[in-house]
Design brief:
This protein has strands at about 5, 10-15, 20-25, 35-40, 45-50, 55-60, 65-70, 75-80, 90-100, 105, 110-115. The protein is mostly beta strands and about 120 residues long. A hairpin with a 6-residue loop joins strand 9 and strand 10. It is globular and about 45 Å long. The termini are far apart.
């Protein structure tokens, strides 16, 4: 069973930065598609950023230029660097790992990010 664990959340003031980490218990994370999602209070979960096996990245418009997704293959870890944080970035952030063969999804438990004005 694949385990996905997020970390790095916390409370920051607007304009601050956080780096989230997603560790997946897989052999070669570079073969997997990893996505960061978030769920603000009272709202639906939305996609924030993703990176595929080719290293291609994508971002939701609201975080472009502020967030960066990256991957450290040696550590089986995907990061989400979040800069210039805004109160509307407040949410529980989740990591999803999608397997390269069966396209099965594995979710982490989430990490809380709170941005105060």
């Amino acid at each position: 069973q694949v385990q996905v664990v997020e970390s790095g959340g916390g409370s920051v003031q607007a304009g601050g930065s956080l780096r989230l980490s997603c560790v997946a218990s897989v052999n070669t994370i570079s073969r997997w598609t990893i996505g960061w999602y978030r769920q603000p209070p009272g709202k639906e979960r939305e996609s924030v950023a993703g990176i595929d096996s080719g290293g291609n990245t994508n971002y939701v418009d609201s975080v472009k230029g502020r967030f960066t997704i990256s991957r450290d293959n040696a550590k089986n870890t995907v990061y989400l660097q979040m800069n210039s944080l805004k109160p509307e970035d407040t949410a529980v952030y989740y990591c999803k790992a999608t397997s390269p063969w069966m396209r099965k999804d594995y979710w982490g438990q989430g990490t809380q990010v709170t941005v105060s004005s």
